[in-house]
């Protein structure tokens, strides 16, 4: 069913785009040959959209938690999306995508702020067009001066948003090259401008135009033709636009062709090794830069203009996106220190990330996808690559990274030798946080324990990035902290990686889990209707019991779980739970269930008063 262009549609778009990029990430990584054959474009785009989607969810959650329990407007959500993409942008293509989303937000948010209600509430989202934006065939007032219908205004706003996005992206790139994501963005805007009909028709036309342009990219960039692939960044953008078309039309768009390298006839190359209008692929044998430098920067427009000039003289693949005092800077250079110093002179750089292309530099010219060298995050971390190419510290053999919801659980994991990533209420960690934790271990092999079903996809993305940096990584699909504890208990670095992963997976799978929570409002559950303040006993993720008192409900949960057997009970106490509750439950297990041991941990988790594990 078609959808208006409103806040809900943007949230749905982010979710669909993230899911689609998650499925296509490995394929996009495999065809990444330009500007550097480092095999990470799909992962970078996924991380960028993940950050945008989390910002959108936060906007909805923030309004829902307000005193008025309001809903965000279209302007609120598109600005959150653009900001999230900006601060989470990774790599060349991710940085450009962030600018594309910013361009769309400029038009859609300005239209909603010009005095009209948000799109979908009876008025257009695109009335705030900027000078230079192309006029669309629909959406203008008719001969009698009447305003267009809401659907026509939605369509007009989307046309102008896509055009603004393409224009801003071209301005952000120091030396635009055709046959890349920029070309695909322009084709999407042109397809939208040619389309008549409602906003869903415009979104479908933008997707179709982008697909057509993507297929033509090998004819525009000789490095793509030699490798027999389409542009990886362009493929990712088409995937994102497919999510937009589906969100607005309610129908899945035509599928893209598989993004895998295929044999190709070598394209003619000029005597200097360059295709028309293009520079050699970064990292090619004839002298591509050795480092990728990315950082966020707080600076004014004047300082950023000077920064662009200085970085352009230092290297290539320069992209600077953002505005209003916050920027994301991306450049490939040989002197990473000079690139960071330039940012310091311009303003306040932070989240500095330096990647050494390493062996990939010697293979990019042949069009063979490869993996980048190790990444370094400043300030220095154990095992980080010195920006001058100096030696790195010796890596440990194997490490475990565990996501946990409380300080006590984090300390428990640290005692067991794991690196803990603590979660905050309502703020699950992004893939980038898990990748940073993997880097801090400085290990050759890493096992990730997400300890939450909702984080499995995030952990998979982090593992993919770790593999791209030369780390052997595996994700054990733990769904609760108690499954993570069980996996850690059998972790043995002395055995082979595969054997260790199998043993940890088996231990986690043999652990059933439950959680007690307090209902915040009246709601329907699998166990019936609960009221605010009721205690919910959730077994394996589903509400199984509803009680009025925590300890009694916990006893009932234990009895139900132990009825099918069990040898050991693990109790993880939440922040503020009295010790008397744990003592009562230990006594209950000892008296009612023969030969079952109980172990108690102070987890300190702020949301769940009690987590239960049965092995």
Would you give an account of this structure?
With 615 residues, the chain is α+β, with helices and mostly antiparallel strands. It contains 18 helices and 17 strands. The strands form 4 sheets. A 6-stranded mixed β-sheet has the order 14-13-10-17-15-16, sandwiched between helices. A 5-stranded antiparallel β-sheet has the order 2-3-1-4-5, sandwiched between helices. Strand 15, helix 18 and strand 16 form a beta-alpha-beta unit. Helix 2 (41-64) packs antiparallel against helix 3 (74-88) and helix 17 (550-562) packs parallel to helix 18 (579-592). The radius of gyration is 26 Å and the shape is globular.
| Rg on CA atoms, Å | 26 Å
Task: Provide a count of the helices.
Answer: 18
How much of the residues is beta strand, in percent? 15-25%
Whole-number average pLDDT? 81
The end-to-end span amounts to: 47 Å
Structure summary:
This protein is α+β, with helices and mostly antiparallel strands and 615 residues long. It has helices at residues 7-30, 41-64, 74-88, 91-113, 150-172, 181-194, 199-216, 222-227, 232-249, 301-314, 336-346, 407-415, 431-441, 456-468, 481-489, 497-509, 550-562, 579-592, and strands at 291-298, 315-323, 326-333, 348-356, 375-377, 396-404, 419-422, 443-449, 472-475, 512-518, 523-525, 528-530, 535-539, 542-547, 568-573, 597-602, 610-614.
List the SSEs and their pairings.
Blueprint: H1 7-30, H2 41-64, H3 74-88, H4 91-113, H5 150-172, H6 181-194, H7 199-216, H8 222-227, H9 232-249, E1 291-298, H10 301-314, E2 315-323, E3 326-333, H11 336-346, E4 348-356, E5 375-377, E6 396-404, H12 407-415, E7 419-422, H13 431-441, E8 443-449, H14 456-468, E9 472-475, H15 481-489, H16 497-509, E10 512-518, E11 523-525, E12 528-530, E13 535-539, E14 542-547, H17 550-562, E15 568-573, H18 579-592, E16 597-602, E17 610-614
Parallel strand pairs: 6-7, 6-8, 8-9, 15-16
Antiparallel strand pairs: 1-3, 1-4, 2-3, 4-5, 10-13, 10-17, 11-12, 13-14, 15-17
Helix pairs in contact: 1-2, 1-3, 1-9, 2-3, 2-4, 3-4, 4-5, 4-9, 5-6, 5-7, 6-7, 6-9, 7-9, 10-11, 13-14, 15-16, 17-18
Biased composition (Low complexity): 362-376
InterPro entries: DegV_domain_contain (IPR050270), DhaL_dom (IPR004007), DhaL_dom_sf (IPR036117), FakA-like_C (IPR033470), FakA-like_M (IPR048394), YloV-like (IPR019986)
Region (Disordered): 255-284, 362-393
């Amino acid at each position: 069913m078609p959808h208006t262009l409103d806040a809900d549609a943007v949230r749905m778009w982010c979710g669909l785009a993230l899911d689609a990029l998650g499925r296509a990430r490995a394929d996009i990584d495999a065809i990444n040959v330009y500007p550097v054959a480092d095999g990470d474009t799909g992962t970078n785009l996924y991380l960028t959209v993940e950050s945008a989607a989390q910002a959108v969810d936060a906007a909805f959650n923030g309004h829902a938690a307000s005193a008025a329990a309001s809903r965000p407007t279209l302007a609120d959500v598109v600005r959150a999306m653009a900001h999230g993409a900006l601060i989470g942008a990774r790599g060349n293509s991710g940085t450009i995508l962030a600018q594309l989303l910013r361009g769309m937000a400029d038009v859609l948010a300005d239209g909603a702020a010009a005095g009209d209600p948000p799109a979908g509430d009876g008025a257009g989202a695109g009335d705030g067009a900027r000078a230079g934006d192309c006029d669309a065939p629909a959406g203008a007032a008719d001969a009698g001066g009447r305003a267009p219908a809401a659907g026509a205004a939605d369509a007009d706003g989307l046309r102008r948003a896509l055009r603004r996005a393409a224009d801003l992206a071209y301005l952000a790139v120091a030396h635009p090259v055709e046959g890349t994501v920029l070309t695909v963005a322009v084709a999407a805007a042109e397809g939208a401008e040619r389309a008549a009909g409602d906003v869903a028709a415009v979104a479908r036309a933008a997707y179709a135009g982008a697909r057509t342009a993507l297929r033509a990219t090998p004819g525009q960039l000789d490095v793509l033709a030699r490798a027999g692939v389409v542009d990886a960044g362009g493929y990712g953008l088409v995937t994102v636009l497919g999510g937009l078309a589906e969100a607005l039309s309610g129908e899945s768009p035509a599928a893209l062709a598989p993004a895998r390298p295929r044999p190709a006839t070598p394209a003619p190359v000029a005597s200097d090794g360059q295709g028309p209008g293009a520079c050699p692929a970064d990292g090619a044998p004839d002298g591509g830069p050795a480092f990728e430098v990315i950082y966020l920067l707080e600076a004014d427009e004047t300082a950023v203009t000077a920064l662009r000039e200085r970085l352009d003289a230092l290297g290539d693949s320069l992209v600077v996106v953002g505005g209003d005092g916050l920027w994301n800077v991306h450049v490939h250079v040989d002197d990473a220190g000079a690139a960071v110093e330039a940012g310091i002179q311009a303003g306040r750089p932070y989240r500095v990330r330096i990647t050494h292309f390493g062996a990939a530099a010697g293979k990019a010219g042949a069009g063979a996808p490869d993996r980048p060298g190790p990444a370094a995050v400043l300030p220095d971390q154990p095992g980080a690559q010195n920006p001058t190419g100096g030696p790195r510290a010796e890596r440990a053999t194997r490490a475990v990274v565990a996501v946990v919801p409380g300080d006590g659980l984090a300390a428990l994991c640290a005692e067991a030798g794991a690196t803990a990533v603590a979660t905050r209420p309502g703020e699950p960690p992004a893939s980038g946080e898990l990748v940073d934790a993997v880097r801090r271990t400085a290990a050759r092999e890493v096992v990730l324990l997400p300890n939450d079903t909702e984080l499995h996809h995030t952990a998979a993305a982090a593992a993919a990035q770790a593999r791209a940096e030369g780390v052997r990584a595996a994700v054990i699909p733990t769904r609760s902290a108690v499954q993570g504890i069980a996996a850690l208990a059998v972790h043995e670095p002395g055995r082979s990686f595969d054997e260790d992963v199998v043993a940890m997976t088996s231990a986690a799978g043999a652990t059933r889990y439950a959680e007690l929570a307090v209902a915040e409002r009246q709601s329907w559950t699998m166990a019936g209707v609960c009221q605010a303040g009721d205690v919910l006993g959730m077994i394996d993720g589903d509400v199984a019991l509803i009680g009025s008192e925590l300890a009694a409900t916990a006893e009932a949960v234990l009895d139900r779980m132990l009825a099918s057997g069990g040898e050991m009970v693990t109790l993880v106490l939440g922040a503020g739970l009295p010790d008397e509750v744990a003592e009562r439950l230990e006594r209950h297990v000892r008296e009612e269930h023969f030969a079952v041991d109980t172990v108690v941990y102070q987890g300190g988790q702020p949301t769940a008063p009690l987590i239960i594990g049965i092995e």
